[in-house]
Design a protein that fits this description.
binds P-hydroxybenzoic acid, 2 domains, 6-stranded antiparallel beta sheet, Arc Repressor Mutant, subunit A, 255 residues, 9 helices, alpha+beta, Beta-Lactamase
């Protein structure tokens, strides 16, 4: 594929353009796309034109561009996230019905937590993330579960990096985090209060495949000082077990 003067391939430039959009900026002018993607205006305009013609981007009534429904269709249809989400939804609905707060299904992607499904309620506690949102591994209960039950190489990589404070209670010290991960491995779950926002606590358990490999984390985000921690953990564990069965039954490939 043709490379630009800066050496990045066409695919990399397309990904930078698509990555210019996020939950806070769903529509952009072509110039804003170029700036946010860090690309020369001429090259951004040309690629945006191609993406509009193929439907991967759409233009709204004001002439701004946004991610096209065609892109959503293509990526969702063939994604392993969709299969995992479908296997998990009935169990997630049961937990959400019991606790009335947020329930989310998260996977590891590029050394971050990627939220692939979330069920919430209008009066649920504040939650910084949403579907297709990302969370740092060290700072979230889902991330700590994915770290604790993930590969040693992943743990070593994350523990060697700076651990920025996201909220008042984020663990920023590698030794403290390493000890915490051992506790999570022993207990089989993570409970994290105030790590992202002081008002919220994350409670998370691993979801395993037939081989016992952790493929996802199932989490609840509840108010801090939540009196129903035991009950929530029991509901999450039961749900994680039924997701594991569903994955095995449907032969869903998770990695
Ligand atoms: C967590 O998984 O610990 C978590 C996630 C999102 C939040 C708060 C906590 O907003």
């Amino acid at each position: 594929m043709a490379n630009s003067e800066s050496g990045d391939s066409m695919v990399e430039r397309v990904v930078r353009i698509l990555g210019a959009f996020d939950a806070g900026r769903t529509d952009l002018t072509a110039s804003e796309v170029a700036r946010r993607a860090g690309l020369p205006m001429s090259s951004a305009h040309r690629i945006v034109g191609d993406l509009l013609r193929t439907g991967l981007l759409e233009r709204d009534a004001e002439g701004r561009v946004r991610i096209g429904m065609r892109l959503w269709e293509l990526t969702t249809r063939g994604s392993r996230a969709l299969a995992l989400r479908q296997a998990a939804l009935p169990a997630m609905e049961r937990v959400q019905g019991e606790i009335g707060e947020h329930v989310q299904l998260c996977v590891l992607d590029q050394d971050e937590v990627l939220v692939i499904e979330q069920l919430s309620a209008p009066d649920a506690v504040s939650n910084v993330t949403t579907v297709a949102g990302r969370l740092p591994l060290h700072a979230s209960s889902s991330g700590q579960v994915l770290l604790a039950f993930g590969r040693q190489a992943l743990r070593s990589r994350v523990l060697a990096r700076p651990l920025p404070a996201i909220g008042p209670g984020t663990i920023t010290d590698a030794n403290t985090l390493a000890r915490r991960l051992e506790t999570i491995r022993r207990d089989g779950h993570a409970v994290l209060s105030g790590s992202i926002e002081s008002v919220a606590t994350g409670i998370s358990v691993p979801v395993t495949d037939r081989a016992g490999t952790t493929v996802a984390a199932l989490s609840a985000v509840v108010p801090t000082a939540w009196a129903r921690e035991r009950e929530t953990l029991a509901a999450l564990r039961a749900a994680a077990a039924s997701v594991s069965d569903a994955i095995a039954d449907y032969g869903i490939l998770t990695h």
